[in-house]
Design a protein that fits this description.
Strands 3, 4, 5, 6, 9, 10 and 11 form a seven-stranded mixed beta sheet that branches. Strands 1-2 form a two-stranded antiparallel ribbon. It has a two-stranded parallel sheet with strand order 7-8. Helix content is 41%, strand content 22%. It is built from nine helices and eleven strands. With 290 residues, it is an alpha/beta fold. It has three domains: 81 residues, Orthogonal Bundle (Arc Repressor Mutant, subunit A); 100 residues, D-Maltodextrin-Binding Protein, domain 2, CATH 3.40.190.10; 92 residues, Periplasmic binding protein-like II (D-Maltodextrin-Binding Protein, domain 2), CATH 3.40.190. The radius of gyration is 30 Å and the shape is elongated. Helix 1 packs across helix 4, helix 2 crosses helix 3 and helix 5 packs antiparallel against helix 9.
Length: 290
Amino acid sequence: MPRNLDLTALRSFVAVADMGGVTKAASALNLTQSAVSMQLKRLEESLDAALLDRTSRTIGLTPAGEQVLGYGRRMIALNDEVFGKMTDQAFEGTLIIGVPHDIVYPAIPRVLKLFNADYPRMRVQLLSSWTLRLKELFAEGRCDMILTTEDHVDPGGETLVEKPLLWYGAPGGTAWQKRPVPLASEPHCQFRRTMHRALDSAEIPWEMAVDSDSTRTVEATVAADLAILAQIEGTVAPQLEIVPHNGALPPLGEKKINLYVSDVANSAVKDHLADLVRAAYGAPRLALTA
């Protein structure tokens, strides 16, 4: 059966070893000398090994004690790190991150999971909207950071990745072959005008088959093979696939995924969240290792 080491006794042992005696260790730990001596005895009994060499006037370590000392320092440091992170009031609060609807998946859920594991007392509020609205909220100071999908990057922002914008439809679907081409989009979607301009330049007629503020409605319509849409490569819902048009539809170019981080109230916690976002969207397939 596994047995657990007494961290309090282990801390006393490390203190005695580092300070060269029980008296100094007791003073540093704010304990009595007898309390420290009892903890040392309890630790030796639990390990069934002598850790201190008491044959001389000064306390030394036995070979077993030298080995335990290395483990003890690491265990106490890890204990203190966990306790500090879980109880430090500096790691409490809320961070607000704005992300366009169409690039939430697959990266953002993984980012939030990793961040929560590192800072369980912090709350991340996800605000999903379209790029122009997110930039307005960011300018008003209502978001700590935002992601955008744009053709350019404004001052103060950074481009995480530039990826192709592709036509997506239902698996094995034929909606892309219809004329006019049935399109699906949210009214404020950044890719809406890109689809229109590309089709107009290619002199291919089109119509809006669905024009809804609901991402789910748009995706369901496309999944039913009633329309097609434009999406950044690698960010589409799993029930959709790239349209195999072989040049029958015009190319849509590329889009930048940009990150803007507020410089108000800088903190290590916010920087850590931003680094997780950078890692997620900078990866080739917009994914993180769990």
